[in-house]
Amino acid sequence: MDIKLYNDFLNLEQWQYAVQQTVQGRTWEFSGFSNTNKTEPKFWYMDLDNDSFFVDTMFPKICDVTGKKFALERVYANGQTHGLSGNLHQDQIGGNGEYYTFLYYPGPFWNPTWGGYTVFHNPVDDTIYSQYPTPNSAVLFNSEILHAGLEPTRHCTDLRVTIAFKMKLEPQ
Questions:
Q1: pLDDT on residue 56
Q2: Could you tell me the sign of the dihedral formed by the alpha carbons of 107, 112, 114, 116, in that order?
Q3: Rounded to the nearest 5°, which phi and psi values hold at 15?
Q4: 53 contacts 106 by C-beta, under 8 angstroms
Q5: Mean pLDDT of 75-99
Q6: What is the C-alpha separation between 109 and 172, in angstroms, rounded?
Q7: Is 55 helix (H, G, I), strand (E, B) or coil?
Q8: What domain range includes position 140?
Q9: Rounded-to-10 torsion of CA 102, 108, 109, 110
């Protein structure tokens, strides 16, 4: 599967800003969906398209670190509490391998007993790849890969937050 992990993605100052704006943010809305099917269960959502840090600082860093030239389509934060598991879905259907998702885990702390993994399904051999939400790490994956954000366990009293960058490869 086309999935790549990036640890220690942001420097300390940048990471603190990302945590402050999202994990500790005050503009959450209970209006997010895993895909366009509005009958699916909702989760916490925060639009970040107008935050210059995510658009003008973090997005160019994604392009630099991955070595790929992307056009940013949108950026937002997802939030989940116990009972709000996502469903297996594709971020892009029929994208001819041109669409990617960069999923960043701001943290600032995560306990393994809290769950909250991101799972990726490989239909070729019917296996699941599971990514632990390590603070200040990210995964880049082809947006056609089936994936889901799993809910935190009942032991977690924090919001499980991810920041999703939806991007399209630009011609080289």
A1: 98
A2: positive
A3: -60, -45
A4: no
A5: 91
A6: 38
A7: helix
A8: 3-169
A9: -30
62 vs 71, 100, 133, CA distance in Å?
11, 11, 18
Number of domains in the chain: 1
**DSSP, res 151:** P
The backbone torsions φ and ψ at residue 49, rounded to the nearest 5 degrees and listed phi first, read -60, -25
pTM: 0.94
**Distance, CA of 157 to chain centre:** 20
Cβ contact 10:18 at 8 Å? yes
Question: Residue 16 corresponds to which amino acid?
Answer: Q
Q: State the pLDDT confidence band at 35, using cuts at 50, 70 and 90.
A: low
* Token pair recorded at residue 104: 């960043």
CATH number for the domain spanning 123: value is 2.60.120.620
Q: Report, as an integer, the average pLDDT of 30-48.
A: 75
Maximum CA extent, the chain? 47
132 token code pair = 């632990």
- The pLDDT tens digits of the residues spanning 40-60 come to 677 899 999 999 999 999 999
